[in-house]
Amino acid sequence: MSxxxxxxxxDIPNLHEIDVYLTxxxxxxxxxxxxxxxxxxxxxxxxxxxxxRGGAAFPTGLKWTFMPKGNEKPKYLAVNGDESEPGSFKxxxxxxxxxxxxxxxxxIAGYAMGINVAxxxxxxxxxxxxxxxxxALDDAYNKGFVGQKMKxxxxxxxxxxxxxxxxxxxxxxxxxxxxxxxxxxxxxxxRYKPPFPAQYGLWGMxxxxxxxxxxxxxxxIIKIGGENYAKIGAPGHTGxxxxxxxGHINKPGVYELPSGTLLTDIIYNYAGGVKKNKKIxxxxxxxxxxxxxxxxxxxGVKMDEESLKKLGTHIGTAGIIVMDEDTDIVKVTLRIAHxxxxxxxxxxxxxxxxxxxxEKILKxxxxxxxxxxxxxxxxxxxxxxxxxxxxALGDAAAWPVRGFILKFRDDFEKVIKHRRTFISPxxxxxxxxxxxxxxxxxxxx
Length: 445
Ligand SMILES: Cc1cc2nc3c(=O)[nH]c(=O)nc-3n(C[C@H](O)[C@H](O)[C@H](O)COP(=O)(O)O)c2cc1C
Ligand code: SF4
Fold this sequence. Notes:
Elements: H1 18-23, H2 28-33, H3 38-48, H4 60-65, E1 76-81, H5 91-97, H6 99-113, E2 117-122, H7 127-142, H8 150-154, E3 161-166, H9 176-183, E4 207-211, H10 212-224, H11 226-230, E5 233-234, E6 237-238, E7 240-247, E8 253-258, H12 263-270, E9 280-284, E10 293-294, H13 305-310, E11 319-324, H14 329-343, H15 349-366, H16 373-385, H17 393-407, H18 409-418
Parallel strand pairs: 1-2, 1-4, 2-3, 7-11
Antiparallel strand pairs: 5-6, 7-8, 9-10, 9-11
This protein binds flavin mononucleotide and iron/sulfur cluster.
């Protein structure tokens, strides 16, 4: 089992309560950060190697340097907790179990970039978590850790206000420009980039958009120092990650482990292995938008962006979806395609029309009314969507469809030919001998 301490979800009972957070060193990292200059804080984050946890794994310290210096214009931080990608459910663990570390991370990020207003954008369906986060924020305000009073409490001139903004249940509002349009009160349509949010963000002002987990990691970096943080996990993608494991798995849940942990370790040693001891047919490593891995490919795979990129996929949100040997891949692909078609905002033609065509053709395949040529047509549509749209939802729709066809063409061909699904015994992954004695981690959230 991993000896790396949990930096985001430590096993401390009631850590969500402000007094418990305070007795465990809470808000001390903000105190430490304000003894440094803003540039020193940004540098520490750069040295840490922290990469965004929202999907694109963009270096966080570098992103913060894009914000203009000085106070001529208001600047904003938008913390992205839209978390609507199927297979992703890690940010809500932070809202529930460690909300003050997120608030403290916002204070540090705000101080580093000279921002006085931050928004936490939370997925509309997360009623419970919105309430929990609001309670934590109210408690922090009451103690004077947030808002104008913080000048007095922390003894310097800096202050920051934080607002929780509830989404309305649209996946597209997680895309950073769409999220900003939604906060501004309009329909959540993505905007063209450039200009990027650091130049033209909320209300046309410089804005940084970061994921909840990214920001919640910042106090841990200030605590142990960027250099020490950089020693955790895989060198190109440092730190601990919140891996969300779902699908045909005995112990679905969120596991905090170093980046670069073996996928098979996560599945068998932490998440309890596959239900009914079945073999694995496919794994999506980072949320439904990422290309899948076949069961026979997962041995030795390390869960970090650089390792996964070499295999033609990505870490995404580290939402691992495990599918057993009996999974009907055609139906899975159809279900994913339906989701992206439904969530397309419709602004650009390749995404709006292409997502519809992909779903239509996949339905035809599932219904036994297709030919092999339809598979090539699907790949051609996916290729024509990718890179030709305003936002990355187009890519998110194209990648899994193309990925499943390229990796499981036989399955599709069999359904086309015989009008039914077959099990493909040669491409599955069986439980490793080393995992025969399963070790469960107590108290894992
Ligand atoms: C369709 C779509 C949905 C997205 N949803 C989310 C989301 O729910 N949460 C998130 O943090 N990032 C999401 N992103 C990525 C954001 O646009 C952005 O890259 C991210 O919030 C930046 O934070 P990070 O640098 O900390 O990763 C989404 C992107 C796309 C294209
Ligand atoms: S890619 Fe899709 S979701 Fe994104 S702007 Fe275009 S139509 Fe809208």
